[in-house]
Amino acid sequence: MELDEPMGKLTDRMQIKREHGVTLLQSVLSNADPLRRQELWAIATQRVKLLMSAQQWESRHGGFCAAKILVLGGQQMAFDDELLPLATLHLEDTEPGVRLAVGECLYALGKVQGISVYDSIKDRLLLSIQNGFDGDLISGDESDQDAFEESPVKKMPSVKQVHSGQNGAMGSRCLETSVKALQRLMEGCGESFQDHVTSQLWQLLLKALSHHNRFVRETGFLCVSTLCQFSPMDVLKDNGGLIASYLALGLSDNWSQVRYAASIATRTFMRRTSEFKSDFFSKLLPAMCLNRYHGAEGLRLYSQETWQLVMGSTGREEVAKYVDVVLDYYIVQSTAQNHLVKEAACHCMAELLWKIDPERIGSLVPRVLTTLMSCFKDPSWAVRDAACSAMRKAIEGYPEEMKKLMPQLFDMWFAHLADNVRSVRENSAFTLGSAMRCFQGEAIEMAVAVLQEVLPQAKNQVDKPCCCHGSLHATQCASPGAGPHHGRPPSAEENMDGALSSNLLPKLAERCDDYGFSRKSEPWEKSEGGIYLLRELSVVAPDRAAKFLPALVQLAQSSGYVEYHSLMETLYRLLPFIAEKLGKKTFKPYLELFIDPLFSALTCGQRLSENASGYCVSKLISFIGPNIFKARLDSNQLAILQSSPLINAHSMTGDIGTLLTSCIITSSMFNATLLHMIVLQ
Description:
Elements: H1 4-9, H2 15-31, H3 34-52, H4 57-73, H5 77-89, H6 96-113, H7 116-134, H8 159-163, H9 175-189, H10 199-208, H11 214-230, H12 233-238, H13 240-251, H14 256-272, H15 281-290, H16 297-311, H17 315-321, H18 323-333, H19 339-355, H20 358-361, H21 365-375, H22 381-397, H23 399-404, H24 406-416, H25 422-439, H26 441-454, H27 523-540, H28 542-545, H29 549-557, H30 564-582, H31 584-602, H32 607-624, H33 626-630, H34 635-643, H35 649-653, H36 656-680
């Protein structure tokens, strides 16, 4: 029989097969012969009713999922009347998946029958939500019980109150799914729900927004988004300040999933209240602005789109108008327990320095710089990296303010040239380059002094045994006295729930007191930071940078440690740039000294180092000239030059356009000479 296969799949233990059974059932019913469709629909209805009352939860889940498509099909009105009592009965089913499927059935019933479904189940549904709050071991703020227009809230819940307690998946057994069922029922009823928006309903849902369980908060914000969509305008206007306060709390949540749900609710609220949206900017603008840089991609992109929809082309002006409030918020967020939030705060402060009128933000720059200096000592390398980038913006926009902090800042930047993370080392060098271009003499002298110390350090590199990944990753292991932030697997306590990866959980580490966060820097890391700094020095003071070419040669010739090829990868990526800034005349005497290490790297077996050396050889040939370069090679090196796929073939013959131009010019000169001879004859 046609229905046997889909009905069998609806009881399967695997959810993907139950979902396939629902799809298959829908296909069978929609594609059936019109004369037989009514019969199949009646048979399917009877079998689905049996599934919804089955002992096995998988069968109940499959039954309610199938019931949704039967209701939306509209073929059995009597079944709709029988489904509502079953949905009410299983609203607090022991299995969460069944409870969610019940919510989908309520959506379908609301879609077909309208607001009468809500009238029938309202008391039971709201009681389930209230019981969820009453049954919590960790209660919310008591003032939330009176949190709406009829009984204005006297005290907004603090961030500490919201995030205290258990953040894990275990919370009130049915609270999350009951709130979700209410949301789906409202969506099903549509505009007809508008007359049923009451203060009791708002009060109940606002209470969910400050719940200790993050999944309840997330579902609560999604439900509030739907409620904003159907609430009368006078309700939103009279109570907009309170709603905005709760939305701001969600936009600042420690969990990105909750922030995303709050962003959905905020977009709905701001678009519904577009005529008077500016009344809420002081509360919502800072968080909306910061989430545009959040590390969670979905949240970041959604927030950027919301910003464009809500603010249009006036965003910069509005931020400048509320810049004091915005900066206060950024500073608070820079101390959050989530490293993604702190990183976003640094990017936002850089944006303030770059985009806001200096006359408006000038007096606030010292506070920005103090905060960035604190973030530059953060345990998370991404936060340090973002803070370093923001400081570079400060140098370019506010050199006088930066000059007052120059001794402290230079100490920090030089220290981070030896950071454990490569991008932090490179970014620190970029920032030092901006400082040298801005401050000139004194900054250049300080950079030269540091280069003399750090550039040769790799010669002192001694390999250490690795305890986890083998010798190729020896430097990634933490030293015995390392701190808790890098270099070892996190403990269950640090993982909070113990079931999620530490990369997905907010960091709970306290701010460090100094730069030595994870382990002592390796000598080769100091040398690599020096190479990055030398690149910047070659732009600002090429004559001073030329004196360090012998040190680069020594680095290239001093192999014998595990990370040698990592260091050479950096050297060969940057060497052509340094050579061009120093000039042919300065660099050519040292070219031959780099030849042997370069060609050794071309066949070293380390792919990244081979690619970097191939790039370097290609660029140097173009810079020096193919004939001059080839004259310094032995027969083996010439063979490698001809056969290596990593070397650009065009670099060995010169630029094709240049050659063609030269040929045309030569031909024109010959023709002109010949014509002149004919004329003379």
